[in-house]
Amino acid sequence: MSKLKNSSYKALVIVEDIGLLIVAISTVIAMSFEVGSMVAAMKVTLADLLLLFIYLEVLAMVGIYLKTGKLPVRMPLYIAIVALARYMILDMKNLDTLRMLGLAGAVFILAAAILAIRYGHTRFPYDKEEDS
Going residue by residue through the chain (132 aa), what tens digit of pLDDT does each one get? Predict the structure, then answer.
């Protein structure tokens, strides 16, 4: 039974690595399309830069996961904050006051969550995991 578990685990790790490779390649392709559209328009906007930043964060998240085997919860939270900021910048003219306050509140909640996670990691660090 242990041999079956080992084989199953290795198969899952391979599928996971393939999935991460697909995410990384797709992100690089999306980045190249975005840069291509900026070059074609001969114009770089703040929304373009924030979108590229989101792509870079996704690549960094994949890199960290491949390097350490762990995914920091803060990375998707950072991506969410940048995505909300980009949304606010793009649709600022169409947003009413209540929606703008809601988006600002969402960014505040995400930032507070990041601070709480960082505080928890420094105040209550994880014990070193033993290899099983």
Answer: 788 888 999 999 899 999 999 999 999 999 999 999 999 999 999 889 999 999 999 999 999 988 988 888 889 999 999 999 989 988 888 889 999 999 999 999 999 999 999 999 888 887 765 444
Q: Give the angle 99-91-58 at the CA atoms, nearest 5°.
A: 100
The two tokens of residue 32 are: 């190249």
Instruction: Compute the Cα dihedral for 7, 12, 13, 19 and give only its sign.
Output: positive
- What pTM did the predictor assign? 0.78
Q: Rounded distance, CA 109 to CA 123, Å?
A: 21
Contact residues for 78 (Cβ-Cβ < 8 A; gap 6+):
57, 114
Token pair belonging to 54: 């989101």
CA distance linking residue 41 with residue 59, whole number of Å: 25
Every domain of the chain and the residues it spans: 2-123
For 63-130, where are the E strands, in sequence order?
none
